[in-house]
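Quick one: structure tokens for this chain, please?
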Amino acid sequence: MRGVIERYAAYLPVDASTPRVTLGEGSTPLVRSSRIGPSLGLTNLYFKYEGLNPTGSFKDRGMAVAVAKAIESGAPTLLCASTGNTSASAAAYAAHYGLRALVVMPAGGVAAGKVAQALAYGATIVPVRASFDQALRLVRQLGELPGTALVNSINPYRLEGQKTAAFEIVEELGKSPQRVFIPVGNAGNITAYWRGFGEFQGRTGGRCPRMHGAQAEGAAPLVRGKPVARPRTAASAIRIGNPASWASAIAARDESGGSIEAVSDGQILAAHRRLSAEEGLLVEPASAAGVALLIAKVARREVQADETIVCILTGQGLKDPKAMTRGLSVPPAVEPTLEAVRRAIRSGIL
């Protein structure tokens, strides 16, 4: 089982003494669009499906490297604030390597599937009546205690692991795409992808893509240019009002000639539904933010039909079952006869 450390050690801050921590993260599929792209008039649209990482999100890439360095330093406790995916990832790697995971999360602000994951993996969870940003401030202070490793994206090793997704995209396509659309919450991922494209292409001489970050309208501090005190959005994974990687995300935008823009919850949920119904890709709402932004930019004629475009789908849909089933219902039961079933089909019940 080769994880990101084993595959990309030459690009990572590791040496022979660094544990090759892995749960099999990375090597996620780059899926060519079969329906959404053609409907938008795009000939080369792809989805990087990060929901197939071990705990169902992109966080596992960075967590593998962060946990390896924590073990290397002798820290027995992993500590994080989380809107859900980081907690699930930290808890899983902690369980596998005999470490303790301590999670501080906003009470009532985390999708049920993610809370269930962290609990199942044995994490110690402390819900606080606060936002993610306040929770992160608390764990920054806790992280000063001996024997702890803070594994949020402010940990530089997290971004080092996350940049490997950019490597995989270049390997799969044989070059960088021309545009990448990506959800932006704490802004570590857009930072990591930009770093990854730059490092990989720096060795091969290729061009880097334009980076397009998508924030939810109710949680769009990078778009507004100032922190949002009470971020609001149905896309809980990006419900963050003061991103830790603010400056580096703006640098990724500006250096790549890209953009960071806001999309509404309605746009996000519409894209979320289209990904499952038209592409067979089940994602959590935040994952669809980049797709929603792409759809908006196509409508404004800001994207060329023949450009190679990759949308990053950051997390698996089963993490947020409430969002996944919004507006859906199981049809009423019918009698177990062939005629009853036929009537149901004809009437459109089934």
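The first strand starts at residue 30 and ends at 32.
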